[in-house]
Amino acid sequence: MKPSIASTAREISAQFPSDLAALAVLISGGLDSAILLAESLHHYPAVHPLYVRHGLFWETAELYHLQRFLECVACPALRPLKVLDLPVRDLYGSHWSITGQNVPDADSPDESVFLPGRNLLLLTKTLLWCHLYGVPAVALATLHGNPFPDATAAFLAAYQKVVNEAVRGDVRILHPFAGLDKVEVLRLGQQLPLEGTFSCIRPVAGRHCGSCNKCAERRQAFAAAGMVDETEYDTEVPCTA
After folding, report:
1. Which of 75, 102, 141, 172 has its CA 20 to 30 A from that of 14?
2. Whole-model pTM?
């Protein structure tokens, strides 16, 4: 039997430490991190959304949608969006995430969207920002079954330790959704303006393309959750080519 939304919410609430006065949330603009941010607003008097801009193909569209979503969930606890720049063009070169060419399509496996060192890069500046600005923890929306090596609990614990040793700090990395799959997270956030989130890795004129790996994942999650998908896709029928 699938857990109810109420029981899932109770389980998630237990993952937010009660001894924190503030929390940073590593946010991308996608479904998972947007729902994590909204959930965090119920637990802390100050929540800082942090976005790390790498210069990836989809980031202009993603940031637009993220700012739109943040306007929809604005409340006294929500602090202004902080954008941290960490360019990777010199590192990734002609990778599809930079060029927008040969982007993994709807039929590609999840492993095809792997970005080398993704969480390593994202967490480097966010952990240091938290240390410098006195925010005791940062949360990220890692889900159950994430196949990538820099999303495991062991990696996150080790990296937290390394960075704290480097700066003599004590910032924690939280991953409250680690026990949930995407459908469970989606149901948790079903009352939110999820049409304002953005999941596409090959946007067309600022809209979801409808045919990339991430658009397919988004469509499938809404369908599996039994929820109406109000996302505007450029292509209504996913491309299989």
Report:
1. 75
2. 0.91
